Amino acid sequence: MSDQLKPIVRAALLFVSVVLIVWVLVPGYRTYAAGFLLGMLVSLINAWILMIKIDAFTRNITEKTEKRGNLGTLSRVCMALIAVMCAVKIPQIDLVFTIIGLFFVQMVTLVRGLFFSKNSS
């Protein structure tokens, strides 16, 4: 796992534990917790897929191979669509919180980047 993804996975595990505590202690919010968990897990899987694709892409560029690569956009979009379809079909999963969870990795990356840019200046 790359050094950039490790802190994001740590933050995700922290959020997963908080969401699971909410799941256990507050039964009224279980649908929201399930939606956020689903979106967050798909977001992490998409980040992992993107990391693998970027590593392969940069390896192809540095080795100057003729092999053409892509960044796996279609597979990541399909993963997000599957999560949304699950949220629509299963009434125990909230659609809005699933969509919010899909942006988890991007938000953590943005906050982390802002934090480190402020500390370095």
Description:
By secondary structure, the protein is mainly alpha-helical. It has one domain. It is 79% helix and 0% strand. The chain contains 5 helices and no strands. The protein has helices spanning 6-25, 30-62, 73-89, 95-102, 104-120. α2 packs antiparallel against α3 (73-89). The radius of gyration is 17 Å and the shape is flat. The two termini are 28 Å apart. The mean pLDDT is 88.
Q: Outline of this structure?
A:
The chain is mainly α and 121 residues long.
Fold blueprint:
Blueprint: H1 6-25, H2 30-62, H3 73-89, H4 95-102, H5 104-120
Order of helices and strands: HHHHH
Computed over alpha carbons, the radius of gyration is 17 Å
Overall form: flat
Tell me the β content: under 5%
> Main sheet?
none
Mean pLDDT: 88
Fraction of residues in H or I helices: over 70%
What multimeric state do the chains show?
Answer: single chain
Uncertain segments of ≥5 residues (pLDDT<50)?
A: none
Number of helical elements: 5
Q: What separation lies between the terminal Cα atoms?
A: 28 Å
Instruction: Supply the helix-strand structural class.
Output: mainly alpha
Keywords: Cell membrane, Membrane, Transmembrane, Transmembrane helix
Organism: Paenibacillus agricola
Subcellular location: Cell membrane
Protein name: ATP synthase subunit I
Properties at a glance:
0% strand, single chain, 121 residues
